[in-house]
Each structure stands twice: as C-alpha cells, then as structure tokens.
Write a structure and sequence with these properties.
Number of strands of chain A: 2
Strand content of chain A: under 5%
Mean pLDDT of chain B: 97
Strand content of chain B: under 5%
Low-confidence stretches of chain A: none
Largest interface: A-B, 73 and 76 residues
Largest sheet of chain A: 2 strands, antiparallel
Oligomer: heterodimer
Radius of gyration of chain B: 22 Å
Number of domains of chain A: 2
Number of helices of chain A: 5
C-alpha cells in the first residue's frame, strides 16, 4: 500500500475532499433556504413572537427544556407544548405564572420568573409559532 | 523542551485542569438535581449549573488546545514562538473573561446578566452552549485572533510540518465557524440551522483536525516511527473526517423544519462518521506496535491509545447508535443523546488534552517523563476516569432506552415527568459513577505531586541528565 497510496495522494484527498464536500454542503444549504418558506412557519412571525423568542433566550429556557428536540433533557419538550396543552395559549400562560417561588420539595420545579402579562403573551405566542413548524411529524406523539 | 517559549503552555495547562475540576463538581450537582429535583433550588437552578458545566468544558478544552499549540508548534516549526508575551497576555484575558462569565452565571439571574451586558443591542445569548454574553463572545474572538496570529507567524516562518499545518487549519476553522454564534435570527429554523455550524462543525469537523494533529505529534515523539508514515495516516484520517462529517451535519436536520431529504444525506454520511475514528484507533495501535523506541513516559502512551479507543466508542459507536433517521425519530433529544455526548467529549477531547499534558508537562520541567511512581498514580486515574465514564454512558443509555420505550414508542405514551421518575434508578447509578470519575480526576491531580521512591531516585536523576 505504501507505494500505491502516497502521502501526496492522502494530502490531496484531505484538501480536495474537504473542499468538495463543503461546497456540496453549501449547495444543499442554498436549496434548504430556497424551500424554507414552505416549512418554517415564517408567516406566523410577528413582533410579539420576536419578543417571545427574546424572552425564551434571556431566561435560558433551553437550559432545562428542549425545543424541537434540542436543548437540555431535564424538563419537557416544548416544540409541541401548544398542542399538548389543548391548543391553548391561556393554559401555557397559566402554567408559567403558577410556578411556586421556592420550588416543590424533593421535585423538579420550574422557577417563578415574574413575567408581565405582555411577556406571558409573547412567550405563549412564540411557542405557538414553534408548534407550527413542519418537523416531518416529529415528535412521535403528544408527550414530546 | 527545545525552545524556552514552549513554556508559555504551562499556565494554559494548569488553568485547563483547574477548570476541569470545577466542571466535574457542577456535573455532580446536575446529576444530583436529576434525582433530588429541588437540590440547591432556587439558588443554583439546573439551567445555571448546566451552563457552567458545558461552558467550562468548552473553555478548558480551548485552554488545552491553546496550550497544546503553544507547546508543539515551536518544536515542529523549529523556532521560538513568535510572541510569548502575547500568549501570556491572552492567557490572562481569556481566564478573566471566562471567570467573570461563570461568576455572572452564578451570581445573578440569567435575565439580569443579559440586561447588564446589553444583550438587547446584539442578542446572541440563551442558545445551548452559546449562552455567553455577547461581550464574552467578542472577547473569545479577540483571543482566538491573537492566538491565531501568534501561531500563524510561528508556523509560516518555520519548518512547515504536516502536524503544524493540520493543527493550524483546524484552529482557523475553529475561529471561523465560531462566527456563526453571532447570527441569531428570529426565524427559529434558521437559528437552529446555523447554530449547528458552530456546534457540529466544531466537534465533528475542525476539532477532529486538532485532535488528529496532537495525537500524531505525541505518537511521533513517543514511538519514534518515521514521520512520513504518521503524516500519511493523519492526512487519510482527517480527509475521512471532512468527507463524512461535513454532510454528516445533516443528522441534525431531520426534525427542525428542514427538508426531508436531509434524512437521507444525514443518515448515509453520518453512518460513515465512525470510519475516521476507527482508523484513528488502528493508527494509534499500529504506531505503538511498530515503535522504534520505548519511551519512558508510559502514561502519555496510555492516554494516546485511550483517546483513540474512547473516541471511537463515544463518538463512533454511540454516535452511530442513534444517527439513522428512523432511529433518531425516537431517540432525538433523550438521554441517548446525553450518553453519546458524555463519552464522545471525554474520549475525543478530554483525553487528547490529558495526553498532551501528560507528554509535555515533564518535558517542560526538564524531564523525559514523570517518575515511575507518579506514572502509576496517573495510570490509576486513567482507568478510574475512563471506566467510570463507560458506566456513566451505559447508565444514561439504559435510562434513554427506557425513556424512549415509555414516552415515545409505547402505544400509551406516558408524560415526560412520569417517565423521569420511573427511570430514576439509572440516574442514581450515573451519579455514583460520576463520584468515581471525580475521584479519578483528583487522583490525576495528585499524580503531579508524587515524589519518586527511594530506589527510583537515581534513575530519575539519570533521566533528568
């Protein structure tokens, strides 16, 4: 093998292969972007949803929950929580609002974030928007 | 150590190990919170402890990579580091920025941290692993650029070995792909799509180049095998890394609102991702078998072989386990992911940093290797950490399989929290394995302070001369 496959060939495989597959990746990315409007529910993005995403980020919700399966696995998946809560933003808001400040003895509990009514609405709308993304039928069932 | 400037790596290695200890302490807190839900609540909520755990991991690995580069690049380039002073300044900048960020996580609520660091002007916070305030991210870029400048000037004006060129290309990729951390659109699908350009293209792309280069360097030094042979292996391995790993990013694009064809691209290419890791194992064992010398640093050789094996198991085997889209449909975002993440990071990146530290630390202190007694202690730490990590992975895998079964696969799926309580036994066992890991880490630290035995003292002195 030593004579047949030289170090130069290995080097060319590294640079050539790396470049080729990165370009292929860029091509697939362009195609993904072009067809994105059909799946990503961008029509539902309002200033309220944008505020909801900002709150989602600035309170580090991903540090416990997953969203579309990504994040931490300490608390339930929220990509389909809107559906799980009976297509109700009111139920989502009530849940967040109702978390006890000192937690629940011995159990996991979401912190009390003291959100305003406007912020609760924004978060619920953000989760409703996320629920509307076409995820190829993931998760397998309502439990997330 | 051939060049005095290589010594700038010392503080980098010390900081890496110190932060590693803190990282594992927070890992134990997290493991406890998994079973005693209100542990340290509300003072240190789970999300805060997790940020500290994951961010410290990244930071100390970066300290390790930087230290590795400062140590090996001058020797490979056959010249002193371009600017040791810059390296020392950047060390303190990075340490202070990292320390302040972690203190920020711990001392104020995350929303307050976002407020006082001006996240509203340039929102990048609150995404997994990229939780750092925007100003910290800018600091990371500045440190990375200064580091790259220093290393590039050294590489380009010195002997350009394959190890140096590959290491440099990996480090440039690391800095380049981190820039996607600054892209945070409101569109969640877009956000997630490019978030992976940092996360996946780091750990399953450019970081593997860094891993390969450091491993190749240590094998050249410890086995005495002809450089040409090792360099060819290195090129083939990293070629396979990029050929499989770049399109392999597709295994993250199954369920986040991206086209269905990613299920094909992602499944096929990521099924091939174990190949470079398998080749790395074959490579490490072959080189050690063909060694032309018996290097006195047995511990470093053990770490080098260990990283190849554990990376293959953690990244290769446990990655493959859940990478095919029909499987991933059920396992996505479960404890299976956590199991894979733990062993892959430990095997591929923790162990390669411990490999280079094990090799370089005695050299930086004028010895070829640590004294035999110290090496025995170090090897104990190798086995304690590695075996306990295997068990952490197995317990999380068991938890994950049960979670998938009850919550995802069953005809009567049960709610998340109900399932979590049913699998708590495995979380308890994971925590116990975690304690053993911490013991192993403390033994590792202790190995640096072990003095040679009375009978060995002359031999050690000889090695010194």
């Amino acid at each position: 093998m030593a004579e047949v496959f030289t170090k130069n060939m290995a080097r060319n495989m590294y640079y050539g292969g790396g470049l080729f597959f990165f370009l292929l990746f860029l091509g697939l990315t362009v195609d993904t972007e072009l067809s994105a409007p059909e799946r990503d529910n961008r029509g539902a993005i309002t200033p309220q949803v944008a505020l909801g995403k900002k709150l989602w980020e600035e309170n580090n919700c991903i540090g416990c929950h997953s969203l579309l399966g990504e994040g931490a696995y300490y608390a339930p998946e929220l990509g389909n929580v809107y559906e799980r809560f009976g297509n109700s933003t009111i139920a989502i808001k009530a849940y967040i609002r109702g978390r006890p400040k000192e937690g629940i003895p011995g159990r996991r509990s979401m912190p009390q974030f003291d959100f305003s009514e406007e912020e609760l609405d924004a978060l619920a709308e953000f989760l409703r928007y996320a629920n509307g993304i076409d995820t190829a039928n993931w998760p397998p069932n309502i439990q997330g | 150590m051939k060049y005095p400037s290589q010594a700038v790596a010392k503080p980098y290695f010390v900081a890496a190990i110190a932060l590693f200890i803190v990282q594992i302490a927070f890992g134990l807190i997290l493991g406890m919170q998994y079973v005693v839900g209100d542990f340290l609540f509300p003072e240190i909520p789970f999300n805060v402890a997790r940020m500290v755990h994951t961010n410290l991991l990244i930071v100390w690995l970066l300290f390790g990579f930087f230290g590795a580069a400062y140590y090996l690049v001058p020797e490979e380039a056959q010249r002193d580091l371009y600017s040791p002073k810059l390296a020392t300044i950047l060390f303190w900048v990075f340490l202070v920025a990292g320390g302040l960020t972690v203190l920020g996580y711990l001392l104020v609520p995350y929303a307050t941290l976002a407020e006082i660091t001006g996240n509203r002007f340039f929102p990048t916070m609150g995404r997994e692993f990229l939780e750092q305030p925007t100003i910290t991210k800018i600091g990371i870029v500045i440190v990375a650029l200064g580091f790259l400048y220093n290393i590039s000037m050294t590489v380009l004006s010195g002997r350009k070995t394959v190890v140096n060129v590959v290491l440099l290309s990996g480090l440039i990729g690391l800095a380049l792909f981190f820039l996607f951390a600054f892209y945070n659109p409101v569109n969640l699908v877009d956000d997630k799509y490019y978030w992976w350009w940092v996360v996946h293209l780091w750990v399953e792309g450019v970081w593997e180049l860094i891993l390969g280069a450091i491993l190749a360097y240590v094998l050249i030094k410890t086995t005495g095998v002809d450089r040409e042979v090792i360099e060819k292996w290195l090129y083939i391995i990293i070629a396979m890394t990029l050929i499989t790993g770049i399109i392999g990013t597709g295994h993250h694009y199954y369920w986040i609102g991206t086209p269905v064809y990613w299920q094909w691209w992602g499944s096929i290419f990521s099924a091939l991702e174990p190949i470079p890791f398998f080749m790395m194992t074959v490579f490490a064992f072959n080189m050690v078998n063909q060694r032309r010398r018996d290097h006195p640093n047995k511990a470093a050789v053990l770490w080098a072989m260990g990283t190849a094996v554990m990376a293959f198991l953690g990244a290769g085997v446990w990655g493959f386990l859940h990478t095919l889209s029909p499987v991933n449909f059920y396992t996505h975002g479960t404890q299976i992911t956590a199991a894979h993440g733990h062993m892959a990071f430990y095997g591929a990146y923790v162990m390669i940093v411990l490999t280079i530290i094990s090799y370089a630390w005695p050299k930086m202190h004028g010895r070829e290797a640590a004294n035999p007694r110290a090496q025995v202690v170090e090897m104990w730490s190798f086995w304690l950490m590695s075996v306990s990590m295997v068990f952490i992975t197995l317990f999380l895998t068991a938890a994950g399989v049960l979670q998938v079964w009850m919550q995802r696969y069953s005809e009567t799926p049960e709610p998340f929290m109900v399932v979590q309580e049913k699998i708590a036994l495995f979380y308890w066992m994971r925590e116990a394995a975690g304690v053993v890991f911490m013991v192993g880490l403390l033994v590792y630290v202790a190995s640096f302070f072990v003095k040679p035995g009375a009978a060995e003292a002359p031999a050690a002195a000889e090695a010194q001369a």
